[in-house]
Amino acid sequence: MKLMVNLDFHQADTGYLYNTKIRHLNNSTKDGKETNSAINKIIGYTPSPSDELESEYILFTSKLGIDPNNKNRKYWKLNLQGNDFSNNTVSNEGFPEGRLIERKHKSRERNSKLITEVKADFLKKQKRLYCTVCDFDFEKKYGERGREFIEAHHTKPVSDMIPGQETKKEDIALVCSNCHRILHKTRPWLSIEKLKKIIISKT
Prior knowledge:
- There is one protein chain.
- With 203 residues, this protein is mainly alpha-helical.
- The chain has two domains: 2-79, no CATH class; 112-202.
- It has helices spanning 11-14, 21-25, 33-43, 51-63, 112-126, 138-142, 177-183, 192-202, and strands at residues 2-5, 76-79, 151-154, 172-175.
- The chain is elongated and about 70 Å long.
- Residues 1-15 have low confidence and may be disordered.
């Protein structure tokens, strides 16, 4: 997926709190340079012309009924598919946070009794809880605070299950927080075995 950003038009979306399309179009004194500079610091490089994205931009603005009169647009071209920004840098600029947002969503129900039993069985057999991918032991690292702490990974995605479908104990893998995040980082998920091989190849 490619992200097209042109701040000469998208200031209402990216740069300025309380701005609107009408206020932006009526403001001829701003040219986006302040926002461009801030984005450059975050991304780590400056935008450049792109015929491909220019065509997409013209199509996008035409759908909104806006005539883009600036012919010298430049774009940041970011590849976001399965990866974080490769050149993410720290900026000294401040960004507003903390606004309360109400969200409504549906989530798949997890069976907490199942997870409790899986942990108990694992502890009884292995005498300790550890990540089945990288062998990380929370209690060994953090002492009492990490005692009996571990995360449960569904090797069969809960999101793919139909209502009423059962999960078996063998469908649960106990993993540390880091390995859990990496397993879920992309779709399709990595298998436990593939992630183990990645770790072994890096040691």
